[in-house]
Every structure is written in structure tokens, then in C-alpha cells.
Write a structure and sequence with these properties.
117 residues, alpha+beta, SH3 type barrels, seven-stranded antiparallel beta sheet, 7 strands
């Protein structure tokens, strides 16, 4: 049996986001890993990710990213409002890494959606 991939925070992977429901982003596309080492060490075979799309609709919660960052081949946007836990079975291949600055920007936008106690 092949071993599971081990995506880490800040990496961009090709992920199968299907099947979807409602307005979720679907398809085989890049996704940025947000889950930290502590979460990733839990033996549940999940990662917290946000999808990346090549279609910029001017949504305020989308952050632009330019190739070759993250191993991307075209200008794209990170869809920060679509945070989801995805099974490692959906992960296909590592594309690259984002800069610490890009990761910090995404974490800041995602943090705006979560009440902190």
C-alpha cells in the first residue's frame, strides 16, 4: 500500500476538491496547506487547506499570488474564505511553497473569520 503524502504548512499541493456542495470550490486544483505541525501530527489523515483559482472575481477575501510562487504556472488568487479540512486521499502532488509573507497574509485574513476567546 502506498504511503500517505505528508503536506506541511505553507506548501501548495494539487488537491481533488470534488465532490462539492453549494458554492464550494471544486475540481482538481492547487490548495495551500494552513494546518500546523500539531494538527498535522494527529493521526486523522486530514489537512486544513484553502483552494487556489486562476479566476479573479475581485472578492475582498481573495489574495493574489504570482508564479512561480507555490509552483503555480499562472496568476491566481487564494480563496481565504473557503477554509476546509481535506483528506490526504485527495492530495496528488506537491507543487511548491509560498513565501512566509504570503502565508502570514492568508493566516491574517482567515483569522478575521474566527472568533478568538
Amino acid at each position: 500500500m502506498p504511503s500517505m503524502p505528508e503536506p506541511m504548512v505553507g506548501e501548495v499541493w494539487t488537491i481533488l476538491f470534488d465532490p462539492v456542495v453549494g458554492r464550494e470550490q471544486g475540481g482538481l486544483r492547487p490548495g495551500l496547506i494552513l494546518s500546523n505541525e500539531g494538527y498535522n501530527a494527529i493521526p486523522h489523515e486530514l489537512r486544513i487547506v484553502v483552494p487556489i483559482t486562476g479566476t479573479d472575481r475581485g472578492v475582498a477575501t481573495h489574495l493574489s499570488i504570482e508564479p512561480p510562487e507555490g509552483g503555480l504556472t499562472k496568476a491566481s488568487v487564494i480563496m481565504c474564505e473557503q477554509v476546509a479540512a481535506q483528506s490526504l486521499l485527495r492530495f496528488r502532488n506537491k507543487r511548491g511553497d509560498v513565501s512566509q509573507d504570503t502565508l502570514a497574509q492568508v493566516q491574517a485574513v482567515v483569522g478575521m473569520f474566527i472568533d478568538r476567546v
